[in-house]
Amino acid sequence: MDKCCSQCEHSPAHPCRDYVLCRSEGPFCHDDGRCKEKRQEFLSRIVIHPGTARKKVIVCAGLNCGSGGGFGLIDLFRRELLKQGVDDTVEVAFSGCRGFCEQGPNVIIEPDRTFYRRVKAEDVAEIVALHLKGNQVVERLLYKDPKSGVLCRTYDEIPFYRHQMKVVLEHCGFINPEDIAEYIAVGGYRALTKALTQMTPEEVLAEVKKSGLRGRGGAGFPTGKKWEAARRVPSSKRYVICNADEGDPGAFMDRAVLEGNPHSVLEGMLLCAYAVGSDEGYIYVRAEYPLAVRRLRIAIAQAERYGLLGENILNSGLNFRIHINEGAGAFVCGESTALMASIEGNRGIPRIKVPRSTEKGLFGKPTVLNNVETFANVPQIILRGSDWFASIGTARSKGTKIFALTGKVQNSGLVEVPMGITLRELIFDIGGGIKGGKKFKAVQVGGPSGGSLPEDMLDLPIDYESLTGAGAMMGSGSMVVMDEDNCMVNMAKFFLNFTERESCGKCTPCREGTTRMLEILEKITLGEGNLSDIPLLEYLGGVVKATSFCGLGTSAPNPVLTTLSYFRNEYLKHIRDKHCPAGECVALRRFTIITEKCNGCGACRYACPAHAISGEKKKPHVIDEDLCIKCGRCYEVCKFNAVRRH
C-alpha cells in the first residue's frame, strides 16, 4: 500500500494531518520528504526567530496603507537594502491590512516586532541604516500613546492592539496574502484536512451549531441552523455563496479579510460545502474592491493548483469550485435575495423570503449564504473546537466581532474584540478616546441602518440583543464616533439620505416613506420645521419599519428614530429656536468674534470670501451678519479661538 509520506503509515485514503503539505509537491511527498519539515520550511518564510542574524521587513500592503504610499515602500526597501549591502541578511515582504489605518503606512521589523508608523519614502534609508544595519530604533517613527506619552516600540505594546482579541484577523498583517504556503504554514487548510479525514459532514455541521456562531452580516441568524436547513432539503444541487458586497459607509471589514487572508474564506466555504453537500460556490464581491478581487483570484488559482479546490479534493470525493461575481455597486444587493438575483443576471431587487433561500435560493436550488467574516470563523471552530469558540463572548453572542472604528476617534481602523465588550472599552481603551480633547456625543452602530447611541449608553455590552434593544443593530460592524461638533439631526439626515438613494424602489413604504422623512429632515435643518414634524417623523418611521419589503427598508428609519429618542432636545432647538447647537447646519448657524480673544491679526478678514469682516490691524475685528454667508472660513483659520460658532 502506498503511504501518505515516508514518515508515517497513513494511506492516501486516510492521510496524516499534514497531507495538504504533501499535495504541495504532487499527490505524495518524495521518498525523502517529511511533512513536518515541509511545514517548518513554509513557516520559516514568515517567522524570524529572536537571536538569529536574519531580519525581515513586513510592509502593510492593504488598500489603506498601500494607497497612502505603502505599495511603493516595498521596492524602495529592496533597493535601499541592496544599496547599503545588507540585502543578503534582510528579507522584504508585504502583508494585508493590520487594522491601524490611522497610523498608516506602517511597517513591522521582525524578529523584534518593532512597529513603525506613517512611514514615508524618505524614511526608508534611515530605517535601513540605523535599524537593519545598526540595531538602533528610529524613535521618531514609533507610536506614542497620547494618554501616557509612552513610546511603544512593539506591535504588542500599543493599546490599540493590546486590548483586542484576534481570531479572524489573527494572521492578517503578518502573512503574504498572495502565497498559499504562508497560510498553510500558520495552520491553513488543516481544518479542511481534519474535516475530510476525521469527520463526517454531519459532525462538521454539529460542531458549527454547537459553537453558537451567528451570521456576522447583520441579522445574526445561527449559522449552523442555516446550514442544517439547506442540507435537509432533498436536492441533487446546492450552492454556497459568500456575501462580500460590503456597502455601508465607512465599513471595510470584509475587504480587509479578503485582501489580507483570502484563503481563510475559501477554507470556510469548503467546510460549508462538505457539511451541506454542495459542489459549487460564488463569492459576490464589490467591483470597487479591485485589490480584494485580484487577491481572491490568486488564492483560488493557488488552491486549485494544490488540489484544494476542484475535483476529488484531498482524495475525499468532495468536488467544489468557486466563482467570483463582481457586484455593480448597489447597496440593496447586500440583501440575500437581491444578491442572488444579481448573480442570476437579473436586476438586483429583493423578493419575498418564502420559501427561504435554504429551500429555494440561487437558480431555484437550496443555498447557504453567509458573509466573509462568518466563513473566516469556521476553520478556527473546526480546528480548535466548538467549546473553545463558545467560551468567547456572551451567553447568546459567541466569539469575536470585527468593527470598522471611524469618525471623531483618536485611533481609527479595524478592531476585533470579544462579544460583550462595552462601547466605552472599544472607543476609549482601543480607540484612544475623542480627537482634540472634544466631548463624546454619540456613536452610530451598525452602519446607515443602525442607531445613534448617547453617552449614557457607553457601558452597554456589544452583543446582538443589547444593541437591538437600544434601537441600534450589530449590522456588518460599522461604527462611527461623533463629538460635540456633530449635529444629530444632520447626522440622521446624512444616513437616511444614503438609504433613500440606495432603495431599489420596489416597495412603496421604503420608496416613498424614506423620501418623505428626508424632506422633513431637510426642512428642519434649514430652519423651516415645525413641532408637528416630530410626531410625523415617528409615525412615518414606524410605518416604514413595519411594512417595507426587505431589510433595507425595515431598518432605514433607525438613525432618525434613535436620534429622536436620545437627542430630542436638538430637534426642538432646531424647530423652536431656529438654532443648531453644534453649529453644523449652515442655514442655522451664526459667527461672532470674541473681542477679548481677538488680537487683530487679520487672518479671518483675509480668508472671508464675502468681505464680511472688518477691523483695524491689532484691534478686535467685527463680523457683519448681513454680509456673512456662513461658510465658516473665519472659524477654521483663527488660531486664537476668537471666532465663536453659534
TrEMBL record:
Query: Do you know which InterPro entries this protein is assigned to?
Result: 4Fe4S_Fe-S-bd, 4Fe4S_Fe_S_CS, NADH-UbQ_OxRdtase_51kDa_CS, Nuo51_FMN-bd, Nuo51_FMN-bd_sf, Nuop51_4Fe4S-bd, Nuop51_4Fe4S-bd_sf, Soluble_ligand-bd
Question: Which Gene3D superfamilies does the entry mention?
Answer: 3.10.20.600, 3.30.70.20, 6.10.250.1450, Glutaredoxin, NADH-ubiquinone oxidoreductase 51kDa subunit, NADH-ubiquinone oxidoreductase 51kDa subunit, iron-sulphur binding domain
List, alphabetically, the SUPFAM superfamilies matched.
4Fe-4S ferredoxins, Nqo1 FMN-binding domain-like, Nqo1 middle domain-like, Nqo1C-terminal domain-like, Thioredoxin-like
Entry's CDD domains? TRX_Fd_family
Tell me one GO molecular function of this protein.
NADH dehydrogenase (ubiquinone) activity
PANTHER family the UniProt entry points to: NADH-QUINONE OXIDOREDUCTASE SUBUNIT F
Q: This chain belongs to which protein, by name? A: NADH-quinone oxidoreductase subunit F
